[in-house]
Amino acid sequence: ETGVTQSPTHLIKTRGQQVTLRCSSQSGHNTVSWYQQALGQGPQFIFQYYREEENGRGNFPPRFSGLQFPNYSSELNVNALELDDSALYLCASSGGQAYGYTFGSGTRLTVV
Amino acid sequence: DQQVKQNSPSLSVQEGRISILNCDYTNSMFDYFLWYKKYPAEGPTFLISISSIKDKNEDGRFTVFLNKSAKHLSLHIVPSQPGDSAVYFCAASEQAGSYQLTFGKGTKLSVIP
Lengths: 112, 113
Description:
The complex is a heterodimer. In chain A, 0% of the residues lie in helices and 52% in strands. Chain A contains no helices and eleven strands. In chain B, the strands form two sheets. In chain B, strands 2, 4, 5, 9, 10 and 11 form a six-stranded mixed sheet that branches. A five-stranded antiparallel sheet of chain B has the order 1-3-8-7-6, with no helix packed on it. The radius of gyration of chain B is 13 Å and the shape is globular. At the A-B interface, strand 4, strand 5, strand 9 and strand 10 of A face strand 4, strand 5, strand 9 and strand 10 of B.
Protein backbone atom coordinates (compact mmCIF):
# COMPACT_ATOMS: atom_id res chain seq x y z
CA GLU A 1 0.00 0.00 0.00
CA THR A 2 1.37 3.42 -0.91
CA GLY A 3 0.58 6.89 0.41
CA VAL A 4 -0.57 8.23 3.73
CA THR A 5 -4.29 8.18 4.41
CA GLN A 6 -5.99 10.26 7.07
CA SER A 7 -9.52 10.03 8.39
CA PRO A 8 -11.87 11.70 8.70
CA THR A 9 -11.24 14.51 6.22
CA HIS A 10 -13.42 16.95 8.11
CA LEU A 11 -14.72 16.99 11.67
CA ILE A 12 -16.71 19.39 13.83
CA LYS A 13 -16.49 19.10 17.62
CA THR A 14 -17.73 21.10 20.57
CA ARG A 15 -15.39 22.80 23.01
CA GLY A 16 -14.50 20.47 25.88
CA GLN A 17 -15.01 17.29 23.86
CA GLN A 18 -12.37 14.76 22.93
CA VAL A 19 -11.34 13.79 19.40
CA THR A 20 -9.36 10.99 17.78
CA LEU A 21 -7.80 11.45 14.37
CA ARG A 22 -6.43 8.51 12.43
CA CYS A 23 -3.60 7.98 10.02
CA SER A 24 -2.58 5.00 7.95
CA SER A 25 1.05 5.14 6.90
CA GLN A 26 2.89 3.51 4.04
CA SER A 27 3.96 -0.04 4.70
CA GLY A 28 7.44 -0.12 6.18
CA HIS A 29 7.29 3.46 7.44
CA ASN A 30 8.09 3.05 11.11
CA THR A 31 8.28 6.75 11.93
CA VAL A 32 5.18 8.91 12.05
CA SER A 33 4.81 12.55 12.98
CA TRP A 34 1.82 14.78 13.51
CA TYR A 35 1.62 18.45 12.67
CA GLN A 36 -0.97 21.13 13.34
CA GLN A 37 -1.53 23.77 10.67
CA ALA A 38 -3.63 26.72 11.79
CA LEU A 39 -5.14 29.00 9.17
CA GLY A 40 -2.48 31.18 7.54
CA GLN A 41 0.35 29.41 9.36
CA GLY A 42 2.87 26.76 8.50
CA PRO A 43 2.59 23.27 9.97
CA GLN A 44 3.73 23.02 13.62
CA PHE A 45 5.33 19.85 14.94
CA ILE A 46 3.23 18.13 17.62
CA PHE A 47 5.11 14.88 18.20
CA GLN A 48 6.60 11.85 16.51
CA TYR A 49 6.53 8.13 17.13
CA TYR A 50 9.12 5.56 16.22
CA ARG A 51 8.28 1.88 16.59
CA GLU A 52 5.29 2.69 18.80
CA GLU A 53 7.21 4.93 21.21
CA GLU A 54 7.01 8.73 21.38
CA ASN A 55 10.52 10.04 20.73
CA GLY A 56 10.06 13.74 20.09
CA ARG A 57 7.54 16.37 21.08
CA GLY A 58 6.90 19.97 20.13
CA ASN A 59 5.44 22.74 22.26
CA PHE A 60 2.02 21.18 22.78
CA PRO A 61 0.28 20.42 26.10
CA PRO A 62 -0.22 16.86 27.41
CA ARG A 63 -3.87 16.86 26.30
CA PHE A 64 -2.40 16.13 22.86
CA SER A 65 -1.43 12.47 22.87
CA GLY A 66 -0.83 9.76 20.34
CA LEU A 67 -0.51 6.11 19.62
CA GLN A 68 1.29 4.16 16.93
CA PHE A 69 0.35 0.59 16.08
CA PRO A 70 2.37 -2.28 14.57
CA ASN A 71 0.30 -2.16 11.38
CA TYR A 72 1.70 1.33 10.52
CA SER A 73 -1.44 3.13 11.62
CA SER A 74 -1.47 5.84 14.26
CA GLU A 75 -3.81 8.09 16.19
CA LEU A 76 -3.75 11.63 17.47
CA ASN A 77 -5.98 12.22 20.48
CA VAL A 78 -6.90 15.64 21.78
CA ASN A 79 -8.75 16.02 25.07
CA ALA A 80 -10.66 19.01 26.40
CA LEU A 81 -10.87 20.67 23.00
CA GLU A 82 -10.40 24.42 22.82
CA LEU A 83 -11.48 26.80 20.07
CA ASP A 84 -7.81 27.36 19.16
CA ASP A 85 -7.46 23.66 18.36
CA SER A 86 -9.35 24.35 15.14
CA ALA A 87 -6.80 23.56 12.44
CA LEU A 88 -5.69 21.16 9.75
CA TYR A 89 -3.95 18.16 11.32
CA LEU A 90 -1.33 16.51 9.14
CA CYS A 91 0.19 13.11 9.55
CA ALA A 92 3.54 12.36 7.95
CA SER A 93 5.43 9.11 7.79
CA SER A 94 8.88 8.08 6.76
CA GLY A 95 10.86 4.91 6.44
CA GLY A 96 14.14 6.79 6.34
CA GLN A 97 15.13 10.44 6.41
CA ALA A 98 13.04 13.56 6.80
CA TYR A 99 13.26 14.45 3.13
CA GLY A 100 11.47 11.20 2.49
CA TYR A 101 8.52 12.37 4.55
CA THR A 102 5.16 11.64 2.98
CA PHE A 103 2.31 13.78 4.22
CA GLY A 104 -1.34 12.86 4.22
CA SER A 105 -4.00 15.29 3.03
CA GLY A 106 -4.96 16.11 6.59
CA THR A 107 -8.02 16.27 8.80
CA ARG A 108 -9.73 19.64 9.07
CA LEU A 109 -10.93 19.97 12.69
CA THR A 110 -13.34 22.72 13.64
CA VAL A 111 -14.08 23.33 17.31
CA VAL A 112 -17.24 25.31 18.04
CA ASP B 1 9.13 33.60 18.17
CA GLN B 2 9.15 32.55 14.53
CA GLN B 3 12.36 30.72 13.72
CA VAL B 4 11.63 30.33 10.01
CA LYS B 5 10.22 33.33 8.20
CA GLN B 6 8.75 33.68 4.76
CA ASN B 7 8.05 37.37 4.53
CA SER B 8 6.20 37.33 1.22
CA PRO B 9 2.72 35.85 1.63
CA SER B 10 2.21 35.82 -2.12
CA LEU B 11 4.06 36.11 -5.41
CA SER B 12 2.81 36.40 -9.00
CA VAL B 13 5.02 35.50 -11.93
CA GLN B 14 4.48 35.23 -15.67
CA GLU B 15 4.75 31.78 -17.21
CA GLY B 16 8.28 31.13 -18.48
CA ARG B 17 9.89 33.64 -16.13
CA ILE B 18 11.87 32.93 -12.96
CA SER B 19 10.12 32.56 -9.60
CA ILE B 20 12.22 33.37 -6.54
CA LEU B 21 10.87 32.45 -3.13
CA ASN B 22 12.76 33.62 -0.07
CA CYS B 23 13.15 32.29 3.44
CA ASP B 24 15.04 33.57 6.49
CA TYR B 25 15.82 31.74 9.70
CA THR B 26 17.03 32.74 13.12
CA ASN B 27 18.09 29.46 14.75
CA SER B 28 21.79 28.93 14.13
CA MET B 29 21.37 25.25 15.07
CA PHE B 30 19.42 24.58 11.89
CA ASP B 31 21.52 22.34 9.71
CA TYR B 32 19.17 21.08 7.03
CA PHE B 33 16.62 22.93 4.96
CA LEU B 34 13.73 21.73 2.85
CA TRP B 35 11.11 23.17 0.54
CA TYR B 36 7.62 21.73 0.34
CA LYS B 37 4.86 22.49 -2.11
CA LYS B 38 1.20 22.32 -1.17
CA TYR B 39 -1.86 22.28 -3.37
CA PRO B 40 -5.30 22.93 -1.84
CA ALA B 41 -6.85 19.86 -0.18
CA GLU B 42 -3.54 17.97 -0.37
CA GLY B 43 -0.71 17.44 2.05
CA PRO B 44 2.68 19.11 1.53
CA THR B 45 4.91 17.41 -1.02
CA PHE B 46 8.68 17.40 -0.67
CA LEU B 47 10.39 19.42 -3.40
CA ILE B 48 14.09 19.88 -2.70
CA SER B 49 16.48 20.08 0.23
CA ILE B 50 19.93 21.39 1.08
CA SER B 51 22.43 20.67 3.80
CA SER B 52 24.27 23.50 5.51
CA ILE B 53 27.57 22.25 4.11
CA LYS B 54 26.40 23.23 0.64
CA ASP B 55 25.37 26.56 -0.83
CA LYS B 56 23.42 25.28 -3.81
CA ASN B 57 21.38 22.27 -4.82
CA GLU B 58 19.69 21.74 -8.16
CA ASP B 59 16.93 19.41 -9.29
CA GLY B 60 15.60 20.08 -12.75
CA ARG B 61 13.84 23.43 -12.82
CA PHE B 62 14.29 23.89 -9.07
CA THR B 63 17.40 25.29 -7.40
CA VAL B 64 17.83 26.11 -3.74
CA PHE B 65 20.51 28.55 -2.60
CA LEU B 66 21.72 28.79 0.99
CA ASN B 67 23.58 31.76 2.47
CA LYS B 68 24.46 30.52 5.93
CA SER B 69 26.12 33.72 7.11
CA ALA B 70 22.97 35.67 6.26
CA LYS B 71 20.70 32.87 7.49
CA HIS B 72 18.85 33.09 4.21
CA LEU B 73 17.77 30.62 1.58
CA SER B 74 15.89 30.95 -1.65
CA LEU B 75 14.12 28.68 -4.09
CA HIS B 76 14.42 29.45 -7.79
CA ILE B 77 12.01 27.95 -10.29
CA VAL B 78 13.04 28.35 -13.93
CA PRO B 79 11.05 28.42 -16.12
CA SER B 80 7.87 28.85 -14.10
CA GLN B 81 4.84 26.88 -15.27
CA PRO B 82 1.14 27.30 -14.41
CA GLY B 83 1.24 23.93 -12.63
CA ASP B 84 3.75 25.42 -10.19
CA SER B 85 0.97 27.57 -8.72
CA ALA B 86 0.77 26.41 -5.09
CA VAL B 87 1.80 27.37 -1.58
CA TYR B 88 5.50 26.85 -0.95
CA PHE B 89 6.77 26.18 2.55
CA CYS B 90 10.33 26.53 3.72
CA ALA B 91 11.25 24.14 6.55
CA ALA B 92 14.34 23.53 8.66
CA SER B 93 15.67 20.93 11.03
CA GLU B 94 18.62 20.75 13.38
CA GLN B 95 20.03 17.74 11.58
CA ALA B 96 19.53 15.82 8.40
CA GLY B 97 17.27 12.89 9.12
CA SER B 98 15.48 14.70 11.93
CA TYR B 99 11.75 14.44 11.75
CA GLN B 100 11.09 17.61 13.73
CA LEU B 101 10.68 20.24 11.05
CA THR B 102 10.09 23.93 11.71
CA PHE B 103 8.05 25.48 8.92
CA GLY B 104 7.58 29.02 7.70
CA LYS B 105 4.10 30.39 7.03
CA GLY B 106 4.34 29.77 3.31
CA THR B 107 4.32 31.82 0.11
CA LYS B 108 1.48 31.46 -2.35
CA LEU B 109 2.90 31.39 -5.87
CA SER B 110 0.65 32.19 -8.80
CA VAL B 111 2.06 31.57 -12.26
CA ILE B 112 0.09 33.50 -14.84
CA PRO B 113 -0.23 31.94 -18.31
